[in-house]
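Entry 0007
Protein: GntP family permease
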Amino acid sequence: MVQGSILLVILLLGIGFIVLSTSKWKLHPFISLILAAYGIAFAAGMPVLEIGKTIRNGFGGILSYIGIVIILGTIIGTILEKSGAAITMADTVLKVVGEKRPGLAMSIIGYIVSIPVFCDSGYVILSSLKRSLAKRTKSSSVMMSVALATGLYATHTLVPPTPGPIAAAGNLGLENSLGLVIIVGIIISVITMLAGYFWATISGKKYKSNEDFEELDINYEDIKNQYESLPSPLKAFAPIIVPIILITLGSIAAFPTHPFGDGTLFTIFSFLGKPINALFIGFLFALSLLPKLNEETLSGWIGEGLKSAAIIIMVTGAGGALGQVLKSTPIGDYLGITLAKYHLGIFLPFIIAAALKTAQGSSTVALVTTSALVAPLLSSLGLASEMGRVFTVMAIGAGAMTVSHANDSFFWVVTQFSGMDVYTAYRSQTIATLVQGLVTIAVVALLSFIFV
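Output (structure tokens):
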């Protein structure tokens, strides 16, 4: 195989191709990642008869343990959206936080909803609620819009079972430590959410959107009345909370100290804590949200979730194929030796993810691609331990939110559903994601210094 500095050139050309093909040429990320995998394999001199096998093994390897998890998580999100459970969750948070802090309420609502629901869909679902609450409390629409958007963004890139963080954890060999990733992600993403809320309050004092001058055409009660009946808070939260609790308990059961012993209790929690089992139980709870058990819900709603999951699975599998190619060539070893002398440590995954996110727009693609790229470098970066890998996922997540601008579909969802012009959106929403990313990597770096 090829050796020396030419390997770095090959890698940079591969990354450049992914960025250009997805952002400028509008090629689907799946095709882009597969083409990059083939290109890097041929250029690095991998034996020709090994290339197809390597790509196949990389694609199938990562999906063998997270494919069904992604499908179940996406179906749960679709059911939460269509059953009105997201509105129930929002209503519950409002009662707890109070209407005197509407911006914080929107941040928390977004934070919770985006764990199973993609941030784009979450914003669309909650935009009417946001407008109604802004008018009712006489709050700035810009503040409310950015608070909701940044709350959604915090968990979208940091907390499984959102597909991006799951894929990153899988690429970094954390499929059996997902509970730990969830715990750390929840802790860090709270700070990320608050950073976004902080910038939202500043933006709300400085900028206006069209919504600030519009009359409200639908109030909060009308929003709720669009559904035949809303589920109870317990039923609404269960599909999200139960799997997270089970995965966490499964991780605790696996601690070296064996807090649950090594008998029946250990077996039960270990079984229930496997992500695929925990998400399946969450799916069963989600079925209780279906208003009717008929073709529309059992086939239509679930089928819609499957269609959404298909794209995520394809991109995730393609990222796994690229990662396997990188592991099978000397690129990872050479890059690790080259970068080790710069002592970038935890900041390298952040920089790569931020560059990819800013260039091509998709947080999920940035998470999948970056985790595949840095997996072979963990030892040279001093991040090969379990906690090192967990914080690497967090660093990649921080980069994958830095920054959301015109090439990101979420940016346009926020502008279109908040009445902000592009200039205002750049100064409020885009800067908010920059603040979130920088604050998050600062927290990750501090924690990794203590625990790694």
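Curator remark: The CA atoms of residues 67 and 313 lie 6 Å apart. The radius of gyration is 22 Å.
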